[in-house]
Design brief:
Blueprint lengths: L5 E7 L4 E6 L3 E5 L4 H9 L3 H8 L6 E5 L2
Antiparallel strand pairs: 1-2, 2-3, 3-4
Length: about 70
């Protein structure tokens, strides 16, 4: 199901970084994210709800702006 908040997300298993691209154009890299969190996000019916419950405010992040 497409998300109204999250445009795309990618996981770098080597570095345990989850990149989330929001519809606003903001890009966030979340650090030290276990692969199980990424897999659960893939399975989640609502990506935005899962993000809010399991990722937001739980992992250190770096914010970028889409160009």
């Amino acid at each position: 199901m497409p998300s109204s908040v999250i445009r795309a997300y990618y996981y770098d298993g080597l570095h345990a970084v989850l990149r989330i691209v929001f519809m606003s154009g903001a890009i966030y890299d979340y650090e030290a994210v276990p692969e199980a969190i990424y897999r659960a996000m893939k399975k989640a019916r609502s990506k935005g709800t899962y993000f809010n419950e399991a990722i937001k405010d739980k992992f250190r992040f770096t914010r970028y702006q889409d160009k």
